[in-house]
Write a structure and sequence with these properties.
With 196 residues, this protein is an alpha+beta fold. It has a single domain (24-189), classed as NADH Oxidase (3-Layer(aba) Sandwich). Helix content is 29%, strand content 21%. The protein has a 7-stranded antiparallel β-sheet, with helices on one face. Helix 2 (38-44) packs across helix 4 and helix 3 (58-69) packs across helix 4 (138-155). The radius of gyration is 18 Å and the shape is globular. Bound molecules: flavin mononucleotide.
């Protein structure tokens, strides 16, 4: 009998871990109004290194993901350009409840890892990990995305910093497509001194 309980327990744990990774969160439609003007955002863009504990709401995350790599036209083109419109960059978001892959077509997040990696990203509230194929133009594509994210952040006083030093945190852990690599990370959080 005891053995049966152990088997049932293990099966339940296995199912829970499998289903947890398949979790999908539908994000609210991005709010495309508000924020500072583009010129003001450009003049205020900067790297922030100290983040407060204040969470980033799902609404802000929705806007941030859309501003970074969302679809902005009915034909499926994106907020950032890619050569031949290949759209091959993948954005992963590491946050308190695991690591999620952004799906632009459905504007949703799919969980890919259960663990909280925030401590490994310098205690940032949310960190994006940018992955793409290894072609000549792929680093350029990634750069366009992190600048979009930096400008949206500046427009709402959200802190952000692009960091090469954390590219190893999820190395070998993410379910990357064949031939992909992690290029850069970008962390976000409300600045410590101005918790807006
Ligand atoms: C591609 C790239 C890689 C970076 N890597 C790191 C990093 O590994 N560690 C770090 O502390 N800052 C990193 N930064 C942040 C820069 O140090 C920072 O952007 C720079 O000092 C300029 O400051 P600003 O963004 O406020 O203009 C990186 C920035 C870029 C664009």
């Amino acid at each position: 009998m005891k053995r049966l309980y152990i088997v049932l327990f293990l099966l339940t744990a296995l199912c829970m871990s499998i289903f947890a990774k398949d979790t999908v969160v539908q994000l609210s439609a991005p709010n495309k109004t508000g924020g500072k003007s583009l010129l003001q955002s450009l003049s205020e863009r900067h790297a922030t290194r100290d983040f407060s504990d204040k969470p980033i709401s799902l609404e802000i995350l929705s806007n941030l993901l859309w501003a970074t790599w969302g679809i902005n036209r009915p034909d499926g083109h994106r907020v950032a350009p890619t050569a031949k419109n290949k759209q091959e960059v993948i954005v992963y978001a590491a946050k308190n409840d695991g690591v999620w892959r952004y799906e632009a077509a459905s504007h949703s997040l799919t969980k890919v890892l259960d663990k909280d990696y925030r401590a490994d990203f310098g205690n940032s509230t949310v960190s994006f990990v940018y992955a793409a194929p290894q072609g000549e133009l792929d680093p350029l594509h990634v750069g366009a995305l992190f600048q979009n994210a930096g400008l949206y952040s500046a427009s709402i006083n959200l802190g952000n910093i692009v960091r090469q030093k954390y590219i190893g945190v999820l190395e070998g852990k993410l379910p990357l497509p064949e031939g992909y690599k992690i290029y850069i990370t970008q962390s976000f959080g409300w600045p410590k001194e101005e918790t807006k």
